[in-house]
Known about the structure:
Elements: E1 2-5, E2 9-13, E3 16-19, H1 38-44, H2 60-64, H3 68-74, H4 81-97, E4 102-107, E5 112-113, E6 120-123, H5 129-140, E7 144-150, E8 172-175, E9 187-190, H6 195-211, E10 214-219, H7 222-236, E11 243-247, E12 254-255, E13 278-279, H8 284-291, E14 296-303, H9 306-320, E15 324-329, E16 336-342, E17 362-368, H10 385-402
Parallel strand pairs: 1-6, 4-7, 4-11, 7-10, 11-14, 14-15
Antiparallel strand pairs: 2-3, 5-6, 8-9, 12-13, 15-16, 16-17
Helix pairs in contact: 4-7, 5-10
Amino acid sequence: xxxxxHAGTGSATNGTAASDNHCVFPGNVAHPLSIPGQTALxxxxxxxxxxxPEGAAKSSIDxxxxxxxxxxxxxxxxxxxxxxxxxxxxxxxxxxxxxxxVVLVTSGGTTVPLELNVVRFLDNFSAGxxxxxxAEYFLKAGYAVIFMHRQFSLQPFSRHYSHSTNPFLDFLExxxxxxxxPDADPRISVTPNKRxxxxxxLTEYKRVHALGxxxxxxxxxxxDYLWLLRALSQELAVVGRRAMFYLAAAVSxxxxxxxKMSEHKIQSGKGNLSIEMDQVPxxxxxxxxxxxxxxxxxxxxxxTDDNLLLPKARQALERYGHQVVIGNDLHRRKFEVxxxxxxxxxxxxxxxxxxADGSDEFSEYWLRINVAHTNQTxxxxxxxxxxxxxxxLVKRHAEWIARTP
Length: 405
């Protein structure tokens, strides 16, 4: 398949992920992809959401875009969905029997196919670093992990040996046969200065697989992702508040419904191309309210404007009712994040006159690490911020479980 790359993206938040809308087709002819404004997008929607309650203040794009129910009623599930669900059901039942907390980690970006016989598609730059790294630390913390990731994106353990930054083959040596056994096959060994790191990774990998606490499954398109997320959320409902949802995938904001797709490859000979796309439904609200009541849900907010980060994180919490938004700036995300959550108030609120913007209802906890510690040996930085993110979430999740009504 020939990918159409987004210039930028974010991690899952507000039900989906923030992403740039400019892309270029590969090949000899450049096509500026035009996504119409909100009014035009609303006119292009083929399926409307449910009627708004009287007095609800919603934009035209929200009122005309796909609802979650309309989306699942009109877009077909991936062919492997039932098989994936059966495997997850068995995994969750085993972890519940053994008394483990279970976290669903979503990771990597989603594609948006432009044709039914897919040649071209929209994509984003997410490699799945945060999700894969965090999954390792959740496993170390004793959680069972369902790792739902973009096909071919980074995975726990093998992420340390990226083909571009720390190629696996570069630290393998071929040892020739000894003079006493010249006909023996050469042996493969690990470069001495790489053995310690590899041994640590391999030991943890073998431990996790012996325990059976990691289950992986893949998605490619935004359709795959949404269908899997709904199905897995429903399966995790059986563990109630012991379930955590760490929604780190970079999910497309817009998609092309199958009813609008060209059957065959879009031809380049016709010159410029404009495609009208629909908004991906916001799925955090149904996840929280219907699919898995009681689960501890974390979404992510990526911004390039510092002035938007906290307001948009608070807005997401108000709108969807989940527990934590982890906000990060595009250029500082590897060494600085902020946890935004609603204040837990067992008694009356402390301020008789709340702030006009509602900010006194929220708490912000900034987490930072020394940036110099993130640039050490390729594949093995001295410090990864995900270690502290996971430690903070494990603590908060334990408090959440302890407050079970």
